[in-house]
Structure formats: structure tokens, C-alpha cells
Amino acid sequence: MEVRATADTVEHLGPLALAARDAGATIPVVVDVDMGWRPPLAPEALVLGVRRSPLWEPSRVVALAREVQRTRGLRFAGLLAYEAQLAGLGDRDRHGRAVPTHVLVKALSRPQVRARRRAVCEALVAAGLVPALVNGGGTGSLSYSARDPSVTEVTVGSALLGGTLFDGMTDLAPEPALYFALEVTRAPAEALVTCLGGGYIASGAAGPDRLPSPTLPEGLSLLAREGAGEVQTPLKVRAGLRLLPGDPVFFRHAKSGELAERFASYLLVRGDQVVERVPTYRGEGWCFL
Ligand SMILES: Cc1ncc(COP(=O)(O)O)c(C=O)c1O
To answer: For burial by CB atoms within 10 Å, which of 122, 155, 195, 274 has the most?
Structure first.
């Protein structure tokens, strides 16, 4: 396995070069290209994307790749060209309704992403800096990026666990594979139960779509005014469903990684059997971000 570092500015290169010197190794460096959508006539006026790298013009990517190549202990290894606005925006909301702004952003982005990747690769090749690796893709853009001739590898994360934010993807709709259970502890009214804990909110622009969803048994919903709380999560219960203190309610999270910060282990289930318990990175004592 080869571990590579990512850079988008010369300031990143100094510490990497020091690390390479200390380790007596050469570090392969991948240059991160901003793949956000920009209005063609005013590209600095608006960016719809993840806002990580300042590099989107081919000439600036080439300049940094050249600097990498010139730095002792570093080697230019390719491009990270992740089109988050395609990978992470659902075409439909949690009620199955089309989200016209998302559909529009994605339609505008597809040709621009492809053209920018091609232009950056061509500029690098012309400068004698052939990118051995061009990474693209995320769950919502897997098949799109896999068809882009500039891309040499695609990445998916969320598809493995299938959080609710990815239910509305038309490119790839992953099967839900991660649930957490909360215990019913109280019943404040006839049609309500309250579970212990549950405020596991997904990151990103905060809104109802970042809340966990009560999934099993069917017929439960969050209260709009309460959401999911650190200490308690009240749920509206449909008529005919009876839950008692001690009963479990199974929820889905909106994303993937964050539950691994909350729980020390995951139970792996096949059919109706728990076949293994594996530690999360919290369980292994790590705290990355
Ligand atoms: C660079 C990069 N590639 C791929 C992914 C994976 O995306 P997804 O979780 O949508 O599959 C991410 C997620 O943040 C990312 O930052």
C-alpha cells in the first residue's frame, strides 16, 4: 500500500519535505484541484462545491505540481479531483420529492467537471508532469466519474453504509447498512414515547435532513420542535403501535462516519445473527478530527 499526501499550496510542501527527510523516504504528493461549479463568465464570483482547494485553473495546478517535483523528498503523484457537488447532493429530498436546485447544479456541473479535469490533465502532460493518478467520485457520482476518461480511480465512502442523505441519489442509491438502537424509557403522552439519547446529528449545513430517522418499527417520527436530543429523543407513535419502556427503536443516521465517533463497536449482522463485534475508531481509542 502506498500512502500519499495531499497539497494545494506551497505552504503544505515544507512540512512534508521535513517529514520525508526525517523518515529518509520520498513522499508521493497528490495535488487537490477544486472541482466546484463556477459561473463561466465570472468564475471567482460564485463556487458551488466543498471549498477546500484554491486551485482550479490548470496553470496554477501545474505550478504547484512543478514545485512538488522540485522539492527534495517529494514526488508529484497525481490529482485529487473530487466533485463533491455531484457526489453529495441528492436529487430527491427525504420525502422523495425532486430538489430542483440540486438537479440544476448537478446538470450544470457535469460538463464543467469533465472539461476541467481534462484541461488540467492536458496542461500537466504538456508540462511533462503526467499525473499517474486522477481521483474522482463519491457515492452520488460514482458512475458519472467512472465514465470520465481523465479519471484513473474512483472513491466511495457513504455507499458502504448508506445514510439517509443518500436515499435521494439517482446515480447510486446505496442499501442502508448501519442502524443504531435507542431504548424507549418513557411515554409522556398516549401517542408519544421518549427514547434515551439519540442526538447524533450529521455534519454539514444544519437542517432537518441532518437528523437521524426512526426506522423500525415503522410508524414513528421525530417531533419537529424537538428533533433528536443529547439526552432524550421523543417520538410520535402511530395509532395501533405500542412501545413499552425497554423496547428498542432502530434509527438510521444521515451520514456514515460520525457514528464511529459515538459508539465503541459495531455489531456485524448476517440474516438474524450477530456474527461479529468490531471496534470503531473510538473503540480503538482514536480521535482523528
Ligand atoms: C476526496 C473525497 N473523495 C471521496 C469522498 C467520498 O464521498 P462519499 O462519502 O460521498 O462516497 C469524500 C468524502 O468526503 C472525499 O472527501
So the answer is: 195
Q: Ligand 1: does its nearest atom lie under 6 Å from the Cβ of 87?
A: yes
What average pLDDT score do residues 19-26 get?
97
pLDDT, tens digit, 9 for 90 and up, residues 32-57: 999 999 999 999 999 999 999 999 99
Task: For ligand 1, pick from 4, 79, 117, 155 the residue to mutate: most ligand atoms within 8 Å of CB.
Answer: 155
Q: How far apart are CA 89 and CA 80, in angstroms?
A: 19
Burial 217-256 (b: 16+ CB within 10 A, else e): eeebebeeeebbeeebbbbbbeeeeebeeeeebebbbbbb
Q: How far apart (Å, rounded) are the C-alpha atoms in residues 21 and 94?
A: 50
Q: What pTM value is reported for the model?
A: 0.90
Compute the distance from residue 248 Cα to the ligand 1 centre, in Å: 32
Closest CA to 47 of 93, 1, 116: 116
**235 closest CA partner among 214, 251, 208:** 214
pLDDT 10s digits, 108-123 = 999 999 999 999 999 9
Cell matching residue 106 = 448537478
